[in-house]
Amino acid sequence: MKKFTSIFLILAMLIVTLSGCSPSTTEAPATTETEESTETASIEGTTMTVVAAYGFAEEIFAEFTKDTGVKVEFLDMSSGEVLTRAEAEGGKPMADVWFGGGADSFMVAGEKGLLEDYVSEEEKSVDEKYRGDNFWTGISLVTAGFMVNNDILAEKGLEAPKTWKDLLKPEYKDEIAMSDPAISGTNYAVVNCILQSMGEEEGWAYLEELNKNIPFYFQRGGEPPTKVSAGEMAIGVIPMSGEFIAMKDKFPVTTIYPEDGIPWVPAGLAIFKNASNLDAAKAFVDWALSAKGQEIIRDKDPRVMVRSDVAIPELMNDINLDKLMDIDLLKFSSERETILERWSTMVGN
Amino acid sequence: MKRLSRGSRNLDAPFYDIFDLSTVFIISGLILIFILWPITEVLVKSFFPDNKFSFEMYRDIFTNDRKLIYNSLFISTLSTIGTIVISTIIAIYATFSNRKIKNIISAILMMTMISPPFVSSLSYIILFGRRGLVTHRLLGLSFSPYGWQGIMMMQIAGNVSIAALLIIGIMSTIDRNLINASLDLGESPASTIKKVVLPLAKPGIVAASFLTFVKSIADFGTPIIIGGKFNVLATEAYLSVIGRGNFPRAAAISVLILIPSLFIFQIYRYHMDSSQLLSTSGAKIQNNDYYGFNMGKPLTIFVGLITFLFLSFLVIQYIVIFLSAISDFRTGKLIFTTEYIKSVRASLMPSFFRSIRYSFIAGILTSMIGLLLSYYVERRNLKIGKTIDFISTLPYIMPGPFFGIAYILAFNGHPLALTGTGIIVVLNCIFRQIPISTKAASASLKNISMELEYAARDLGSSNLKVIFGVVMPLLKPAFLVSFINTFTATMTTVGAIIFLITPSTRVATVEMFNVLRDGKYGLASVLACMLIFTTLIINVSFSSLLLGKAKISKE
Known about the structure:
heterodimer; A: alpha/beta; disordered N terminus; B: mainly alpha; two-stranded antiparallel sheet; 2 strands; disordered C terminus
């Protein structure tokens, strides 16, 4: 028994030593190997890693696996989080592909050299407005709107808001759920679109008034709709995707497209620089932009897709695309830091 | 206790000397690389935001975020006071009740120590939220549950288990003759508790206060979920990183959190020999014979009632989680459903097994390193021993995100590029739990007579043989405590590793954190149950495996 224990202890100590001291040496040959074999290797059977901010991502990836034989491992992460992590990790990406989330973070990441230069053949069929640049492409549109909890509104004797202006009504005080634009791409789009469409001065005045009605900010874009559906808040500023619109079947909620303009931003798709499975990543981008891929993605998580030959999902038939706010997408990245800075002083602690 | 400085003896073969020396070398090296270096990186980052020395980060926090500092101190002080009062009451009740009640209480406390970090916040929202079972369905109220009261309640609920176990551990060792003497001399039961029991239990109470304070000031998960607009330093450090990518700011905030913790740590060291730290946490409770004494009716009822109420609250929390995993009460009626269990996506399972694997590896390795470290510190009187020991305690008083950020900063490039690997996650968990292992081992070592070692040496054993043949087997209980602690902590941790996880190294708690933040309470409850049950099963089976067959007693 004693002997066994001591052997065990020694073995374990060796493991500590090995695992503690040798990873850098064991990793080196692995990278050269993949570089050499990229040209000939078939992607079938390989594994691709993805950071995703997309509803039903798992089902979408399952379809991709069915079509190509590439296995997918993924992690849910908001676009702001991804940007931060990618920067901190300095050129050693946590994944091959970045799927979904507000385009602003993609633009910033592209400028900082964190993304791979890749333009898919399929991009030709994508509406020019949504194409992005060499480093990223749009995949679908994230549009923002409201969700209201009818029970709470009735309880409080309130009417549902119809416009952004309505949100300022004093009777909605502390009843509005919104997320931190630094973390949620959707809510960054809301803030940026409002500033662009109202003009800077009026826009900030509006946001400051709105801030008075919002008790505190959630982090992720997906939080407000779930809080509203659970009856914890009356009104939420939400990403209008099928996942949330469909909540009306289960919960006492209604979703509303604001009449005075719908903020939007393309949900991005990009490959990280130094991706370890570059071929599979490229294949995924091609697949996601193909008519077939777009339809699959739309059916899993209904949104307006970037290909004009792919129809608007049934759940969103009532969206009026003319109401999309008229904005300059480039300003999303160039103004990001200044806007967030000002936002954080405005909100304060 | 006598401590002799003993190098190896002449009898030792050179091989063993080398082995002995390299063990010391490796262990100190590991502590320096995986604890001291990352911490230094954070400190440097906070003072050199743009590679130039500046106090800017700190000045900014002190001018613009003074409220956060105040909030942090406020909430951790309240939580600590609340936790200690309740745990002491529970401990008094448990210690002076008959053995059966004491065992039941201890069992409940140990069960509730296994708590994934957001379980209490989760049940808080389910119970007391705007549509909460208690507040809305039962009492017809409708109010927002977000705020500091919630944080305080949940931190107390989360910390009482370990605090009470610690205090019970100490109270059980109090010599009953002292209590009898006091009673015989005419002191009332109440004043006996006040003048005899409480002062003697002070080490446990001090340790528990230290633990609770440090844990609540570093807690970012509870405030983020139920704090609403009540923001604290730990949350802000987390948000600075994920939202704004501002590492220097996060680093500076983390340093600020560390200051009060270090301060408290000094008070704590002053009050007791540091080796008593946590030695009884989660450990077995001393088997002193039952010595109930009659506290008098009013006091018994009062103490018993509080114990009963609080333990019920703890148990109800768990029942709520369990129920919300298998039923749907949104409509006002309890409808059982397998919807949530079915929605556990297939892709969650690998994360789950990965959690178990990581926790197991971390549990074993932490215990090894911790035991060896404490042996060299306690018994060999090495020059660097005290320093290494102090450094190895630091991760415990550090907020989780701090330790995670430290790892990203230290290991994202040459010479040790570990970010993105599973190794970094495991290493992070190992070195975060080392303090508990060393303290548990040190405490046990003090109970092992030096004579045994001398005897072994006199009979010709080498240093190595003394360690592995004599000391280590006797440290099995400490090994077990350390394993269980690390395993449980790694299974349920999120703060530190949330920055280190990648798609291929996802673990169950991070999945749960994501699900919970998306507001999917049902699914989150299922995951919580899975975590709790697995941790419980592995802990119990590992204990019986290690202690069951060979009954090694310390005496």
